[in-house]
């Protein structure tokens, strides 16, 4: 970044989205020249909005080109014309032709006009012109019906009142709405069938966002501080806010989603700190769906994707297809082709290739063993090193193989997983291994790394910029269920099927790593090791009771856990903190996540009642119900586009492009999230029957500590009788202790359930 430019950096704060988004402490870096007037800087903001729109249209064009290539395949055709079907075109055309032969004009004169046009442009016979005119009109009518159905579905999906109904009570109007959605949704939708029918994420009113923000910080501020913040907020709402809002409105009309591209760029790709621990997240072995469609855009970059380091900002490289993976084992890299004789390898053949790697006696080349530490450390040294030493020759070819692979696999030499005889130590070790390993045995830039341990346990480490955790979780569930219940293994532990000696051996990647590069590797490894050693992780199963008993209390399981977290945090830290809970916005096109600010006035009142010996059970229970109801309302607002944090984030981005200072936004975006939480929702519950297969319960996944002086908590409610928790913090902070927090959380769960008259040990 040149010195003659003004660098405007503002540390936003560590955030937690689904699983791990929370701890992306990102400095916004804008290089706007200082010698321009407001009009010129406004042009910069308009330029960025135009670029966002062009980016959206570019993606649509790319999808269109892909669709053209897919026209030879039925899936591409079906997705392209959904909710209609290719056969419906024939039905419409035949119907039009039939009415024509019956001397009935269904077109109200349009067919005749087409016929006259053909008269002047061709020498077709009268009969042929009639047929062509009928086919053209029928095709046009068919296309018009498709667009009508899609638009009608978009209008229907823009209604979200159903989310705010009392649980178990559905009004007649909502039932009619659900039937209409089902009718216009068509039959057998595919992954991208609903993309064009999803509504756009709305831009909330500035005053609404300001009011909700003030409501959220009221219990966290002293009276004088709150009055000062109120004055800043109200001034912003009537002065600068409307001006910034105008740009966001413009962007929301032009771009597909007014948040997602800036969120990806400034929260993820511009982060210069390590991805390991700070951004990537993990999933453990075994994770365990509805009338309303969700956006599928994030699926596009699941495979064949890698994050490419840059000095100022990273980029996401996505290949249209990849026919190989790269496997790391004992300090060596192997390229493994996934196809042979024009077909995908079978499970037994893939096992054969893995065994060949395990049996390979070769040693790592100079500098090869710890090479992936470059992806675990700071981004700038990695970017410079990549440019200096990996731009040509064998290094470029080998790096291309890694970055263009479908995904990365690590055959880990350690043994991990749940051990009944030592639950606490085994789960903590398992979590830390998946989160960071030895800091050089996962390629943290890949969309995901499958980690296979020596004892056969598995896990996944995922990079966060390309998508949020539910996407990776959905893949993980499907992989585990398919592996266990469809593919299966023989009695001696091998994959079913036969080996194939004709398949070429995996190829060792070749490197020529100079000493200067090895020094950078060691520096990155040192940075990553310090970060990894500072992670205090506690992963444990809570078996005292689960959502089955919570539902008997006629309350939201998620709200129950969130209030238990508030109670545990207060007992642990002696104060309330700004709390982040992740929710999704995939009800909207290209939606990602939104924040639920779980620490509310209502939750604080409940917690204070729980620690006040003068309060009765009835009083505490009443305050719990009020707080739980408020939490559910906030969650629904976040899911339906009325959250506040993405709106404030985008207003801040616009202010930086306009080079205008907002004391209000500056303070809002610098507030730390000392308690960052995320639920991992089981999605494909139909894949697992936990009553018949209790051994396949999910351990879920987790992420690293969000704030240096706070906690990161992930949890998954499995079946009716189990909740798995993952708690992270930093050893370097004297105020936090993940195991101590875990004890407070267990006690908080037990204390709350007794309010409803249930024993803490009752799991029935």
From TrEMBL:
Catalyzed chemical reaction(s): 4,8-dimethylnonanoyl-CoA + (R)-carnitine = O-4,8-dimethylnonanoyl-(R)-carnitine + CoA; (R)-carnitine + hexadecanoyl-CoA = O-hexadecanoyl-(R)-carnitine + CoA
Domain Choline/carnitine acyltransferase: 201-285, 291-747
Subcellular location: Mitochondrion outer membrane
Family label: Belongs to the carnitine/choline acetyltransferase family.
Matching InterPro entries: Carn_acyl_trans, Carn_acyl_trans_N, CAT-like_dom_sf, Cho/carn_acyl_trans, Cho/carn_acyl_trans_2, CPT_N
SUPFAM superfamilies, sorted: CoA-dependent acyltransferases
UniProt keywords, alphabetically: Acyltransferase, Fatty acid metabolism, Lipid metabolism, Membrane, Mitochondrion, Mitochondrion outer membrane, Transferase, Transmembrane, Transmembrane helix, Transport
Protein name: carnitine O-palmitoyltransferase
Top-level taxon: Eukaryota
A single GO cellular-component term on record: mitochondrial outer membrane
Predominant subcellular localization, coarse grouping: mitochondrion
Membrane-topology descriptor: Multi-pass membrane protein
Transmembrane domains' residue ranges: 89-111, 131-153
Enzyme Commission no: 2.3.1.21
Domain (Carnitine O-palmitoyltransferase N-terminal): residue spans on this chain: 19-65
Pathway connected to this protein: Lipid metabolism; fatty acid beta-oxidation
Catalytic-site annotation from UniProt: 464 (proton acceptor)
GO terms assigned for molecular function: carnitine O-palmitoyltransferase activity
GO biological-process terms attached to the record: carnitine metabolic process; fatty acid beta-oxidation; long-chain fatty acid transport
Enzyme superclass (EC): transferase
């Amino acid at each position: 970044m040149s010195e003659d430019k003004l660098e405007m950096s503002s540390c936003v704060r560590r955030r937690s989205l689904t699983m791990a988004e929370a701890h992306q402490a990102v400095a916004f870096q804008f290089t706007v020249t200082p010698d321009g007037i407001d009009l010129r800087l406004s042009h910069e903001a308009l330029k960025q909005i135009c670029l966002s729109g062009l980016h959206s249209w570019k993606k649509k064009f790319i999808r269109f080109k892909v669709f053209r290539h897919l026209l030879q395949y039925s899936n591409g055709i079906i997705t392209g014309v959904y909710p209609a079907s290719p056969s419906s075109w024939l039905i419409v055309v035949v119907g039009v032709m039939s009415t024509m032969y019956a001397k009935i004009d269904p077109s109200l004169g349009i067919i005749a006009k087409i016929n006259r046009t053909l008269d002047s442009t061709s020498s077709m016979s009268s009969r042929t012109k009639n047929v062509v005119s009928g086919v053209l009109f029928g095709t046009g009518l068919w296309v018009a019906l498709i667009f009508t159905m899609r638009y009608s579905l978009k209008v229907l999906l823009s209604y979200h009142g159903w989310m705010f109904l009392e649980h178990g009570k559905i009004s007649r109007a909502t039932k009619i709405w659900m039937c209409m959605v089902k009718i216009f949704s068509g039959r057998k939708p595919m992954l991208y069938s609903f993309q064009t029918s999803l509504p756009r994420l709305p831009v909330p009113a500035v005053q609404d966002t300001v009011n909700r923000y003030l409501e959220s910080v009221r219990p966290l501020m002293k009276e004088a501080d709150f009055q000062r913040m109120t004055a800043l907020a109200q001034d912003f709402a009537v002065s600068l806010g409307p001006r910034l809002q105008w740009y966001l409105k413009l962007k929301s009309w032009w771009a597909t989603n007014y948040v997602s591209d800036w969120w990806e760029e400034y929260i993820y790709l511009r982060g210069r700190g390590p991805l390991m621990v700070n951004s990537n997240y993990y999933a453990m072995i075994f994770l365990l769906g509805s009338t309303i469609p969700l956006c599928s855009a994030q699926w596009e970059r699941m495979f064949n994707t890698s994050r490419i380091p840059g000095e100022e900002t990273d980029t996401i490289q996505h290949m249209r297809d990849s026919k190989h993976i790269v496997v790391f084992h004992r300090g060596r890299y192997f390229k493994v082709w996934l196809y042979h004789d024009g077909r995908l390898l079978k499970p037994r053949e893939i096992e054969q290739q893995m065994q060949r790697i395990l049996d390979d006696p070769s040693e790592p080349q100079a500098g090869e063993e710890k090479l992936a530490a470059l992806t675990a450390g700071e981004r700038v040294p990695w970017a410079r090193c990549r440019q200096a030493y990996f731009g040509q020759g064998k290094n470029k070819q080998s790096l291309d193989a890694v970055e263009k692979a479908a995904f990365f696999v690590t055959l880990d030499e350690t043994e991990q997983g749940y051990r009944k005889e030592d639950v606490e130590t085994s789960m903590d070790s398992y979590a830390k291994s998946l989160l960071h390993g030895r800091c050089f045995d996962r390629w943290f830039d890949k969309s995901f790394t499958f980690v296979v341990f020596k004892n056969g346990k598995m896990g996944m480490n995922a990079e966060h910029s390309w998508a949020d955790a539910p996407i990776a979780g959905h893949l993980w569930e499907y992989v585990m269920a398919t592996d266990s219940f469809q593919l299966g293994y023989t009695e001696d532990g091998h994959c079913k099927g036969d080996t194939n000696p004709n398949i070429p051996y995996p190829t060792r990647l070749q490197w020529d790593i100079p000493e200067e590069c090895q020094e950078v590797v060691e520096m990155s490894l040192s940075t990553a090791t310090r970060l990894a050693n500072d992670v205090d992780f506690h992963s444990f199963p809570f078996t005292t009771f689960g959502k089955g008993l919570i539902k008997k209390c006629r309350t939201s399981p998620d709200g129950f856990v969130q209030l238990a977290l508030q109670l545990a945090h207060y007992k642990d830290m002696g104060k309330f903190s700004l709390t982040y809970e992740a929710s999704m916005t995939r009800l909207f096109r290209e939606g990602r996540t939104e924040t639920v600010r779980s620490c509310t006035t209502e939750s604080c009142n409940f917690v204070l009642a729980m620690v006040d010996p003068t309060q009765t059970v009835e009083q505490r229970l009443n305050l719990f119900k009020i707080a739980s109801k408020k939490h559910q309302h906030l969650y629904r607002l976040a899911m339906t586009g009325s959250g506040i944090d993405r709106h404030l984030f985008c207003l801040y981005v616009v202010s930086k492009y306009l080079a205008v200072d907002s004391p209000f936004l500056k303070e809002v975006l610098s507030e730390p999230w000392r308690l960052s939480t995320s639920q991992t929702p089981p999605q494909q519950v139909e894949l697992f029957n936990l009553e018949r297969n209790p051994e396949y319960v999910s351990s879920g996944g987790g992420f690293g500590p969000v704030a240096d002086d706070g906690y990161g908590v992930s949890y998954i409610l499995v079946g009716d009788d189990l909740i798995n928790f993952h708690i992270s913090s930093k050893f370097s902070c004297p105020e936090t202790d993940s195991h101590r927090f875990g004890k407070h959380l267990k006690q908080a769960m037990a204390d709350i359930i007794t309010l409803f008259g249930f024993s803490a040990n009752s799991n029935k």
